[in-house]
């Protein structure tokens, strides 16, 4: 039986993780900046990273649907299995809706997304300042929910690895596998 | 005598007769001064909400046609609400010192068909530059519709200096687009020039 995720799934997972860990603080930092060229540049980079996360997420979802992920260790009890699956489903839902709300917000604010400065995404909404502000709040709230879920996801993975010493984390980080296992 | 005419056109063949119409009553509510530019390669559109036009345009009498447009710079909508407050600042338009931009058309030329061009001086942020603005003129009943655009470089006028001078963030090129609607007063004789 496969004890770890495929290399493709592992690569996509960690790429997405790194991008989220960089663009989340970037989003917080840039929104408080005084209007300046730096602010405009950071907004663009944030949007480009967001589009990249969305594309990688679609790839990850497609891969996952086609390649069954490894089972959780048998020692994990029912409610924890349920919690793990629920958190994963919510994470996937947010990985879809956070970029989408960012895209909608860009359209509503009248500043379309031009991916990498090259490819202009169509505007999904017409310009509407009030709606833009609502979407900004939505985008921000969803991100805090994501932060809470990521904290749970990481805490659970560390607990399984460090305290219960099972194979939960090594399925995604096979290089941490203990020789004795 | 009073007034000047729009920076645009003249004499279309449509009008053709000796009783050619002179278009001098500009319908500001139906008219528009807008602009396109790029910010981090993102195309944005803005507009000026307030402007005043004095114009006297007769397509059959281009030599005596005149136009003057005064734009209230502080009425700007940059297309990015975060930018609207910033652009009245010294580095941009410095609207306290230079509240108005003006274009005075001194001559008009027919380019064939419904196409014309206005030549004149654009005064913006203390700089006055000769410019040529091509436009089309179409007559619809007693309304004359002027549509045109011209490309300019913001840095030629010192718009967006200092930290904003880097054109990789806010492009130097700005395309001004205007749409004016003016109604005519039928006149057998065109009024003499001022």
Write the layout of secondary structure elements.
The complex is a heterodimer of chains A (181) and B (194).
Chain A: H1 7-32, H2 37-66, H3 78-108, E1 114-115, E2 119-120, H4 129-163
Antiparallel strand pairs in A: 1-2
Helix pairs in contact in A: 1-2, 2-3, 3-4
Chain B: E1 21-26, E2 32-39, E3 42-48, E4 51-56, E5 66-72, E6 76-77, H1 81-86, E7 100-112, E8 115-124, E9 127-140, E10 143-153, E11 173-186
Antiparallel strand pairs in B: 1-11, 2-3, 2-11, 3-6, 4-5, 5-7, 7-8, 8-9, 9-10, 10-11
C-alpha end-to-end distance of chain B: 5 Å
Order of helices and strands of chain A: HHHEEH
The rough form of chain B would be described as: elongated
How much of the residues of chain A is beta strand, in percent? under 5%
Number of helices of chain B: 1
Radius of gyration of chain A: 19 Å
What integer is the average pLDDT of chain A? Answer: 93
Number of strands of chain B: 11
Which structural class should the secondary elements of chain B be placed in?
mainly beta
Largest sheet of chain B: 11 strands, antiparallel
Q: Low-confidence parts of chain B lasting 5 or more residues at pLDDT below 50?
A: 1-19, 187-191
What is the strand tally of chain A?
Answer: 2
Task: Classify the helix fraction of chain A into a percent range.
Answer: 55-70%
List the quaternary state of the chains: heterodimer
Report the helical percentage of chain B.
under 10%
Mean pLDDT of chain B: 85
Distance between the termini of chain A: 14 Å
Structural class of chain A: mainly alpha
Molecular shape of chain A: elongated
Biggest beta sheet summary of chain A: 2 strands, antiparallel
């Amino acid at each position: 039986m496969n004890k770890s995720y495929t290399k493709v799934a592992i690569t996509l997972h960690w790429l997405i993780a790194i991008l989220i860990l960089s663009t989340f603080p970037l989003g917080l930092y840039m929104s408080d900046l005084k209007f300046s060229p730096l602010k405009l540049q950071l907004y663009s980079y944030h949007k480009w990273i967001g589009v990249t996360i969305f594309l990688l997420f679609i790839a990850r979802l497609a891969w996952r649907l086609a390649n069954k992920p490894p089972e959780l260790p048998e020692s994990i009890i029912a409610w924890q299995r349920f919690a793990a699956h629920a958190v994963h489903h919510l994470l996937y839902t947010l990985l879809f809706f956070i970029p989408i709300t960012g895209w909608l917000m860009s359209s509503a604010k009248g500043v379309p997304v031009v991916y990498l400065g090259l490819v202009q995404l169509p505007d999904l909404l017409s310009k509407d300042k009030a709606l833009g502000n609502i979407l900004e709040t939505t985008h921000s709230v969803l991100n805090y929910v994501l932060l809470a879920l990521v904290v749970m996801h990481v805490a659970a993975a560390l607990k399984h690895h460090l305290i219960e010493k099972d194979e939960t984390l090594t399925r995604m980080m096979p290089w941490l596998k203990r020789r004795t296992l | 005598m009073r007034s000047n005419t729009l920076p645009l056109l003249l004499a279309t063949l449509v009008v053709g007769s000796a009783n050619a119409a002179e278009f001098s009553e500009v319908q500001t509510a139906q008219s528009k001064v807008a602009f396109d530019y790029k910010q981090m390669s993102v195309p944005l559109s803005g507009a000026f909400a307030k402007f005043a036009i004095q114009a006297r345009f007769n397509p059959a009498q281009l030599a005596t046609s005149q136009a003057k447009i005064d734009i209230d710079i502080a009425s700007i909508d940059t297309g990015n609400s975060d930018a609207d407050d910033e652009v009245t600042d010294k580095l941009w338009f410095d609207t306290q010192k230079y509240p108005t931009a003006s274009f005075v058309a001194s001559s008009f030329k027919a380019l064939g068909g419904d196409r014309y061009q206005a030549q004149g001086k654009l005064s913006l942020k203390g700089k006055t530059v000769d410019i040529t603005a091509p436009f089309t003129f179409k007559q619809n009943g007693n309304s004359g519709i002027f549509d045109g655009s011209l490309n300019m470089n913001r840095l030629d006028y010192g718009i967006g200096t200092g930290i904003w001078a880097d054109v990789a963030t806010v492009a130097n090129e700005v395309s001004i687009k205007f749409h004016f609607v003016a109604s005519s007063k039928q006149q057998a004789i065109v009024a003499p020039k001022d």
